[in-house]
Amino acid sequence: MTRADRILLLTVIVLLPFLYASLWPTSLSASFLLIHRGNSALLTESLHPDRVLQMSGPLGESTIEIRNGRARFTSSPCPTQACVHSGWLTRSGEFSACLPNRISLELASRHPYYDAINF
Q: Residues of 3-29 as b/e, b for ≥16 C-beta within 10 angstroms?
């Protein structure tokens, strides 16, 4: 490795955080919550006002909390509780699912941002 290689590598390492901050788009805030049961969209809910929803699935009732423009599972009858441990969904595009109970949450925006489009 030559001296020029080291200088180039150091320059890239120093500039990388600045390039990331300036070129990577910021996440959009979510406008609404999509609640799916099975393969179909069940409900479209606004993220305001704050409330608690009960959704029934094959295993029983899942509790969904909407507060301060974010959403989460607070309880579910599934054995692993992975949906509850996923925490708050805050930005458009975030997703959480209770697979055994076949209920999923997805935050969406009225003006979606696409970082890639597939045909």
A: eeeeeeeeeeeeeeeeeeeeeeeeebe
Tens digits of residue pLDDT in 52-78: 999 998 999 999 999 999 999 999 999
Domain span at residue 45 reads 32-108
CB-side neighbour CA atoms (13 Å) of 111 = 3
Q: What is the CATH number of the domain that holds 81?
A: 2.60.320.10
* Alpha helices, H only, 24-87: 82-85
Integer CA distances (angstroms), 4 to 11, 18, 45, in order = 10, 22, 57
